[in-house]
């Protein structure tokens, strides 16, 4: 019978795998590093603004979502690259769709930031 982890052991192992994934993304993905740095700056700004808790959560959540989607996009790219380097329509489509997901998430974050900042500072 296979040794399957349950309970706390499974959670600890999952946290270790997650840390390994974040480390790999940081080491191998320039876009991930740039977005993490931008997110740290944005979160800092969000805490300095005189806004409501809900608005602060929306600002922070939107930039963290960009980082999350970038990590998923990087995972898609890694799998596609693992399969092979020759051009294939489906591989290109997968990479383009992952990139589009990051782009749309960035647009969402910009929209949220724009609307909140506009409502407070441009009235």
TrEMBL record:
<keyword id="KW-0479">Metal-binding</keyword>
<feature type="binding site">
    <location>
        <position position="29"/>
    </location>
    <ligand>
        <name>ATP</name>
    </ligand>
</feature>
<feature type="binding site">
    <location>
        <position position="99"/>
    </location>
    <ligand>
        <name>substrate</name>
    </ligand>
</feature>
<keyword id="KW-0444">Lipid biosynthesis</keyword>
<dbReference type="GO" id="GO:0046872">
    <property type="term" value="F:metal ion binding"/>
</dbReference>
<dbReference type="InterPro" id="IPR036945">
    <property type="entry name" value="DAGK_sf"/>
</dbReference>
<feature type="binding site">
    <location>
        <begin position="95"/>
        <end position="96"/>
    </location>
    <ligand>
        <name>ATP</name>
    </ligand>
</feature>
<keyword id="KW-1133">Transmembrane helix</keyword>
<keyword id="KW-0460">Magnesium</keyword>
<keyword id="KW-0472">Membrane</keyword>
<feature type="transmembrane region" description="Helical">
    <location>
        <begin position="60"/>
        <end position="80"/>
    </location>
</feature>
<feature type="binding site">
    <location>
        <position position="29"/>
    </location>
    <ligand>
        <name>a divalent metal cation</name>
    </ligand>
</feature>
<keyword id="KW-1003">Cell membrane</keyword>
<dbReference type="Pfam" id="PF01219">
    <property type="entry name" value="DAGK_prokar"/>
</dbReference>
<feature type="transmembrane region" description="Helical">
    <location>
        <begin position="101"/>
        <end position="121"/>
    </location>
</feature>
<feature type="binding site">
    <location>
        <begin position="31"/>
        <end position="35"/>
    </location>
    <ligand>
        <name>substrate</name>
    </ligand>
</feature>
<dbReference type="GO" id="GO:0005524">
    <property type="term" value="F:ATP binding"/>
</dbReference>
<dbReference type="GO" id="GO:0005886">
    <property type="term" value="C:plasma membrane"/>
</dbReference>
<keyword id="KW-0443">Lipid metabolism</keyword>
<keyword id="KW-0808">Transferase</keyword>
<feature type="binding site">
    <location>
        <begin position="113"/>
        <end position="118"/>
    </location>
    <ligand>
        <name>substrate</name>
    </ligand>
</feature>
<dbReference type="GO" id="GO:0004143">
    <property type="term" value="F:ATP-dependent diacylglycerol kinase activity"/>
</dbReference>
<dbReference type="InterPro" id="IPR000829">
    <property type="entry name" value="DAGK"/>
</dbReference>
<keyword id="KW-0418">Kinase</keyword>
<feature type="binding site">
    <location>
        <begin position="86"/>
        <end position="88"/>
    </location>
    <ligand>
        <name>ATP</name>
    </ligand>
</feature>
<feature type="transmembrane region" description="Helical">
    <location>
        <begin position="36"/>
        <end position="54"/>
    </location>
</feature>
<dbReference type="InterPro" id="IPR033718">
    <property type="entry name" value="DAGK_prok"/>
</dbReference>
<keyword id="KW-0067">ATP-binding</keyword>
<comment type="similarity">
    <text>Belongs to the bacterial diacylglycerol kinase family.</text>
</comment>
<keyword id="KW-0997">Cell inner membrane</keyword>
<keyword id="KW-0547">Nucleotide-binding</keyword>
<comment type="function">
    <text>Catalyzes the ATP-dependent phosphorylation of sn-l,2-diacylglycerol (DAG) to phosphatidic acid. Involved in the recycling of diacylglycerol produced as a by-product during membrane-derived oligosaccharide (MDO) biosynthesis.</text>
</comment>
<feature type="binding site">
    <location>
        <position position="17"/>
    </location>
    <ligand>
        <name>ATP</name>
    </ligand>
</feature>
<keyword id="KW-1208">Phospholipid metabolism</keyword>
<feature type="binding site">
    <location>
        <position position="10"/>
    </location>
    <ligand>
        <name>substrate</name>
    </ligand>
</feature>
<keyword id="KW-0594">Phospholipid biosynthesis</keyword>
<feature type="active site" description="Proton acceptor">
    <location>
        <position position="70"/>
    </location>
</feature>
<feature type="binding site">
    <location>
        <position position="77"/>
    </location>
    <ligand>
        <name>a divalent metal cation</name>
    </ligand>
</feature>
<keyword id="KW-0812">Transmembrane</keyword>
<feature type="binding site">
    <location>
        <position position="70"/>
    </location>
    <ligand>
        <name>substrate</name>
    </ligand>
</feature>
<feature type="binding site">
    <location>
        <position position="10"/>
    </location>
    <ligand>
        <name>ATP</name>
    </ligand>
</feature>
<dbReference type="GO" id="GO:0006654">
    <property type="term" value="P:phosphatidic acid biosynthetic process"/>
</dbReference>
